[in-house]
User: What shape does this take?
Amino acid sequence: MNTLTHRNLRTRAHRRGFSLIEMLIALTITATLLTAALSALDTAFKSYKFTTDSASTHVVSRIVVHRINSIVRNGVEFGPEMPEDFLPETDPPFESDHLTFVAREDEENLIRVIGRVERREVDDLNDGPFALWYEEETYTNGTLTASEERPLLTGLLAATFFLRYDDLGVVSSITTDLTIKPNDFRESIAIHAGNLGDAPIIRLVSTINPRRIEYDD
Assistant: This one.
């Protein structure tokens, strides 16, 4: 009787639960699986950000180029003026880091609005090395009465305007050449999810002719 009771107690003790080693092994496996799942989720999220930010930059860049084309189409008196030693028949297009134009003119009220699209260097290299800015100055009877400026596009690797002139020194066509680096959060991705590669560089080139070419009498 005592022997049977002793065996029952041993059996119950053996069936009571897992040993400490078994529990540690199970916890280790669970932690490993959770870590792998969270890492995969983090990579997927940052890949999504990588793609959407690149696509967003592409759309914004195209909008900016379209805006510049509209300016060229509807503006007059474009600058910079043709250099004195420039030969429009033989020289390549004149390169400039800015473009000036008359955006609006009200001869009755003596109001003249001068616009300027300009490439500028930036302090934060994460937004550069260049940015494209728009400036506008309003003159009333020859006196500056108002001015404003705002950024058009950041993350530029290059931004150049190529101007062609006719025989009279008037701008006949303008080419806008922009090279943009998408803001793809690459550093954050590389740290947390490994190297997913560089986002493709965006280059947009557009040539447009002014709709209104005015000559002095």
The longest strand covers residues 143-165. Residues 113 and 207 are 24 Å apart (CA to CA). Confidence is low (pLDDT under 50) at residues 184-196. Residues 20-74 form the longest helix (55 residues).
